[in-house]
């Protein structure tokens, strides 16, 4: 229980940090943000209006306090480009990112963990081949892998559509595979190492001595105990997955959070940038919290 | 178990040396000025005169890829060196003094780790603007925390070792104990971590440049080349292929080096 409370407090600190950081982002802009947004030609009246709406006319402390008070009410102020509330824009983009990330995670676990189990069971040439494959896949940055896949499957073979999210699930395949291939490679390496370590343990040897079949022992007892490191790696990789979606969304014109963030950066739509950075980071903190709680749950030693 | 140099280290190190040599000698061996445009021959396919072909501005791709190695290695090398040194100092101080100092420094580490690394760098660059200096700054800010955590854990354990305690009892100060007796034991750990850190930083730099936020557009970089290649993937796939392969081989050599060094320093993990 104590560990859980500690872990929760740590997440609160993280969320506070993330919020403060996104508040200070606009103050990192060299020079006057108002000049950058409006350009040189703007009238003095427009400048004052914008300065007021961004809250930049107040003292830093007052702005900071105001930011948090508004945040508690779920108000992230307004997008400069569309005039919509930032929260509305984020809400519209979130499902597309979640769908993509979950599908990619699912594919990664499917291929990574099963290939890991397979290579431990088979050993020999299969093991070497899969290890080599995972090494190569881990070294393929997503912004090189995605163009290869697009060129091969969409442009040369015309099997799959390229960009923009359609209704058909076909549109998911290329972006999700681009994310899942390197991620699964990490999972392969880790699940292989975890399984190998577990099957050396005494209780596996005992189970085998009792006459249980080797496959059953490996899968039932081995996998259960190898689950802890595998879950940890999935959690650690969630950051890579989230930031990977930013790049993948920009390559495939996928209308999610990442694309929203990049467009906001290009348009100098600072409130929207702040909101998107805040939301992605908070998701990251929460995913890590959930993974740690699962970790504590399946690993009884940690529960004290 | 005796330490044995393995095949991964040899392959990783030699391909890294080769790539560094290309980067170092780029101004001498480049066939053309990387920024010289040839507007009559846009997107030309690879030929004997232009082995990697020409890009969308009619610039020689081989020369640009050679120069791209420079910026990748320069940025990644600096980021990892600075992150390592800062992490080493913070981790050592935190572990040595403990109590309040440790609490403060570790909460700082927690705060930095609250963000996905790439997003932190991306947000900072989006605000600060793109320049090589800002790029290095942003990647360092998100990079040192991992080293600090690692060093702290190891120093906490090493400072209780008998040879450290006996050095202290003979009158060695904390700095001497740290530098002469503790840090040498961190070498293997730090080298392995540095290699994997290089993997992450090279990919992050190229990714940021791909998004237009990393290296400024007037400096040839693999990320930017891949980004302009994406626009003309149908007509000129060679524009994506060659910078991508260059990036892939650099990342792979660091990956091999990291794997190999880990096996070298800790033979039990094999």
Describe the 3D structure.
The complex is a heterodimer of chains A (304) and B (270). With 304 residues, chain A is an all-alpha fold. Helix content of chain A is 78%, strand content 0%. In chain A, helix 5 (86-122) packs across helix 8. Chain A is flat, with a radius of gyration of 24 Å. Chain B has 270 residues and is mainly α. Chain B has helices at 7-29, 61-97, 99-113, 117-128, 132-158, 162-169, 174-210, 222-231, 238-265. In chain B, helix 1 (7-29) packs across helix 9, helix 2 packs antiparallel against helix 3 (99-113) and helix 7 (174-210) runs antiparallel to helix 9. The two termini of chain B are 12 Å apart. The model of chain B has no long low-confidence stretch (mean pLDDT 88). The interface between A and B is large, with 45 and 42 residues.
List keywords for this structure.
heterodimer; A: 304 residues; mainly alpha; flat; B: 270 residues; 9 helices; 73% helix
Termini gap of chain A:
6 Å
Number of helices of chain B: 9
User: Can you give the mean pLDDT of chain A?
Assistant: 83
State the major sheet of chain B. none
The largest contact between protein chains, plus residue counts on each side, is: A-B, 45 and 42 residues
Can you tell me the overall shape of chain A? flat
Q: Report the principal-axis shape of chain B.
A: elongated
Alpha-beta classification of chain A? mainly alpha
String of helices and strands of chain B: HHHHHHHHH
Task: Assess the beta-strand content of chain B as a share of residues.
Answer: under 5%
Question: Quick recap of the structure?
Answer:
The complex is a heterodimer of chains A (304) and B (270). In chain A, 78% of the residues lie in helices and 0% in strands.
């Amino acid at each position: 229980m104590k560990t859980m409370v500690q872990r929760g407090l740590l997440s609160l600190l993280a969320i506070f940090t993330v919020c403060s950081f996104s508040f200070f982002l606009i103050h990192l802009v060299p020079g006057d943000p108002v000049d950058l947004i409006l350009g040189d030609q703007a009238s003095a009246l427009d400048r004052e209006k914008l300065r007021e709406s961004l809250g930049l006319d107040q003292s830093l402390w007052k702005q900071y306090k105001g930011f948090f008070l508004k945040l508690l009410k779920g108000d992230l102020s307004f997008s400069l480009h569309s005039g919509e509330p930032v929260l509305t824009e984020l809400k519209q983009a979130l499902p597309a990112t979640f769908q993509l990330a979950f599908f990619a995670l699912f594919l990664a676990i499917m291929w990574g963990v099963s290939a890991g189990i397979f290579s431990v069971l088979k050993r020999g040439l299969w093991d070497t081949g899969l290890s080599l494959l995972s090494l190569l896949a881990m070294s393929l940055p997503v912004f090189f892998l995605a163009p290869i896949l697009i060129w091969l499957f969409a442009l040369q073979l015309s099997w799959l559509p390229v960009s923009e999210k359609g209704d058909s699930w076909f549109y998911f395949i290329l972006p999700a595979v681009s994310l899942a291939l390197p991620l699964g490679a990490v999972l392969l390496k880790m699940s292989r190492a975890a399984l190998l370590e577990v099957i050396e343990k005494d209780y596996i040897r005992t189970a085998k001595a009792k006459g249980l079949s080797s496959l059953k022992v490996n899968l039932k007892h081995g996998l259960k105990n190898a689950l802890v490191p595998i879950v940890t790696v999935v959690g650690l990789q969630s950051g890579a997955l989230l930031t990977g979606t930013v790049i993948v969304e920009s390559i495939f014109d996928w209308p999610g959070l990442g694309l929203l963030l990049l467009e906001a950066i290009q348009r100098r739509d600072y409130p929207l940038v702040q909101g998107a950075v805040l939301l992605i980071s908070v998701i990251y903190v929460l995913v890590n919290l959930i993974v740690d709680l699962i970790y504590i749950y399946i690993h009884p030693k940690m529960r004290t | 178990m005796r330490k044995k140099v393995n095949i991964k280290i040899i392959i990783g190190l030699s391909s890294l040396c080769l790539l560094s040599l290309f980067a170092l000698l780029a101004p001498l061996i480049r066939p053309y000025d990387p920024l010289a445009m040839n507007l009559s021959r846009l997107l030309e396919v690879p030929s004997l005169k232009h082995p990697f072909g020409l890009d969308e501005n009619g610039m020689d791709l081989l020369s640009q890829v050679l120069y791209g190695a420079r910026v990748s290695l320069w940025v990644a090398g600096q980021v990892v060196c600075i992150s390592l040194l800062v992490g080493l100092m913070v981790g050592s101080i935190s572990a040595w003094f403990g109590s309040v100092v440790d609490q403060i420094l570790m909460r700082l580490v927690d705060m930095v780790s609250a963000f996905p690394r790439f997003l932190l760098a991306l947000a900072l660059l989006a605000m600060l603007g793109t320049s090589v200096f800002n790029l290095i700054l942003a990647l360092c800010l998100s990079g040192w925390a991992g080293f600090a955590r690692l060093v702290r854990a190891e120093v906490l354990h090493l400072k209780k070792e008998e040879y450290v305690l006996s050095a202290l009892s003979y009158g060695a100060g904390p700095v001497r104990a740290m530098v002469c007796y503790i840090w040498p034991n961190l070498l293997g750990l730090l080298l392995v971590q540095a290699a994997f850190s290089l993997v992450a930083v090279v990919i992050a730099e190229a990714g940021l440049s791909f998004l237009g936020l990393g290296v400024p557009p007037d400096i040839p970089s693999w990320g930017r080349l891949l980004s302009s290649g994406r626009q003309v993937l149908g007509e000129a796939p060679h524009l994506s292929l060659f910078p991508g392969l260059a990036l892939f081989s650099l990342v792979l050599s660091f990956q091999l080096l990291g794997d190999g060094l880990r096996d070298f320093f800790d033979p039990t993990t094999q």
